[in-house]
Every structure is written in C-alpha cells, then in structure tokens.
C-alpha cells in the first residue's frame, strides 16, 4: 500500500478568478453562440463574431482575463463561418425566388 505524504492537505479545486480589476473571460459563451450560429441561426453567429472580437481586443488591452482566449478565438471563427453560411443561404434563396418565382409570375399574367 502506498501512503499519502503528511503535511500536504488536499484542497478542493476552485474555479480560477480573474485578476483584480479584470473582466472575466467569456470564451465558453462566445463558443456556444458561434456553434449555434452555424447550426441554428446566423444572427447568433454575428453576435459571437462581435463579442469575440471585442473580448480579444479587451484581452490585448489587459482589461479582460486572457485565460479564455483560445475559446474566444474558436467561438469567433465559428461565428464568422455561421454568418457566411447564413449570407450564402439568403443569397441562394433570393436567386431561387428570382429564377423560379418571376417566370412563374410572368407566365400567369400572359
């Protein structure tokens, strides 16, 4: 049997607190919004993009805890992808309406 060394008490893990005067990291929130922007609604992608960009700027300025930088970058990239996919889908819909809808409408008039 292995004995535990004396004098090293085990303390429960506590969540890391941002340094004094810094805003907490929101990387998880930005990542969730970015993923939902891809899957559900590109508006959430826009929100993730804007939040991520602002948070990264605040991290560089030392106003926000940099511990969530990687999650924030990933969320912002997902937000950019979701926004681009949403714009492409919207343009595809417009093209489909113009190509299919207008000729049908003109044919019904004549």
Largest beta sheet, briefly? none
Contiguous runs where pLDDT drops below 50 for at least 5 residues: none
**E-strand count:** 0
Number of helices: 3
Helical percentage: 55-70%
Shape: elongated
Number of domains: 1
SSE order, as H and E? HHH
Kindly state the mean pLDDT as a whole number?
86
How many whole angstroms does the radius of gyration measure? 24 Å
What is the straight-line distance between the termini? 93 Å
Computed structural class: mainly alpha
- Beta content comes to under 5%
Structure, described:
This protein is mainly α and 110 residues long. The chain has one domain (27-109). The protein contains 3 helices and no strands. It has helices at residues 27-39, 42-61, 69-109. Helix 1 (27-39) runs antiparallel to helix 2 (42-61) and helix 2 packs antiparallel against helix 3. It is elongated. It starts with 26 loop residues before the first helix and ends with a helix. The mean pLDDT is 86.
Give a brief rundown of this model.
The chain is mainly alpha-helical. It contains three helices and no strands.
List the helices and strands and how they pair.
Blueprint: H1 27-39, H2 42-61, H3 69-109
Give the tags.
110 residues; mainly alpha; 3 helices; elongated
